Amino acid sequence: DTGVSQNPRHKITKRGQNVTFRCDPISEHNRLYWYRQTLGQGPEFLTYFQNEAQLEKSRLLSDRFSAERPKGSFSTLEIQRTEQGDSAMYLCASSPTGTPSDEQFFGPGTRLTVL
Amino acid sequence: DAKTTQPPSMDCAEGRAANLPCNHSTISGNEYVYWYRQIHSQGPQYIIHGLKNNETNEMASLIITEDRKSSTLILPHATLRDTAVYYCIVRVATNAGKSTFGDGTTLTVKP
Fold first, then answer.
1. Is the Cα torsion angle A26, A30, A31, A32 positive or negative in sign?
2. SS3 assignment, position B81
3. Which of A112, A50, A57, A55 is nearest to A85 (CA)?
C-alpha cells in the first residue's frame, strides 16, 4: 500500500476554466476527506465521504465546487468557473471506519494556481 | 470542536527535547487531542492522540493536564528533519469526521 495519492500534483489554469482533481485513498479506508490550504494557514475542511455517501459539506464549498465518490473508492473534486481566490493546495485524506482513535492519512496535495 | 491555541513559532536545538504547548480550555469530555505535523510541501502527518492519559509512541509523547485544558507534545531528541508546522486538534470522539486545524506552531530545529 502506497498511501493516499492525488493527481495532478500541480495545476495551472486560467480564470473561468473548470478543473478536476482526483484522490485515491488507502484501500479499505471507507472515509475520505477533502481540505483546502492557503499559504500560511492550516488546512480547512471542505467535505467528507463515508463510502459513496457525502456526509458533510463545509460552507466553504460553494456551488462551484462538487465532490463525488461514485463507487466508494477514489474521489474527484471539481471546481467550475475557477476564480483567483481558488488558488490553494487541495488536500485529500482517508481513514478507516470512524472510531475515536482513527487517524487521517493525508495525500501530498494538488496545488492549484488560477491566473 | 473545541478551539485550540498554539504559539506561532518555536526554536529548538538539535538533539534537545522540543516541547510544544497547546491550550484547549473549552474541550469537552468526549473530545480527543490529536497532533499532526506538516513538513514543507507535504500533506499533514499524524503524530499521536490522547483522551486523558499521557501517551507515547515511537515519534513523540503527549502530556495532557489533569483538567484536560492543555497539552504538550514532546519530541524527545529533535532532529533537523523535525522542522515543520505542528498542529494541535481537538475532535469529538463519535462520528469522527472533519478536523479543524488552526495555524499551528512552526518548529525550527537548529544545529
1. positive
2. helix
3. A112
Other C-beta atoms lying within 10 Å of the C-beta of residue B28: 12
**Positive/negative CA dihedral, B27, A92, A20, A90:** positive
- Is the Cβ–Cβ distance between B32 and B55 less than 8 Å? no
Q: What value does the mean pLDDT take over residues A35-56? A: 92
DSSP single-letter state for residue B16? S
Q: Which three cell numbers stand for residue B9?
A: 513559532
B97, B89, A38, A4: CA torsion to nearest 10: -50
Across the interface, whether the CB atoms of B46 and A107 are under 8 A apart is answered no
Closest CA to A43 of B75, B44, B111: B44
Partnered with residue B36 across adjacent β-strands are B46, B87
pLDDT grade for B108, boundaries at 50, 70 and 90: very high
Which residues on B lie below 8 Å from A88 (Cβ)?
Answer: none
C-alpha grid cell for residue B64? Answer: 495532557
Better pLDDT: B101 or A16: A16
Residue B94 forms contact with A (CB below 8 Å)? yes
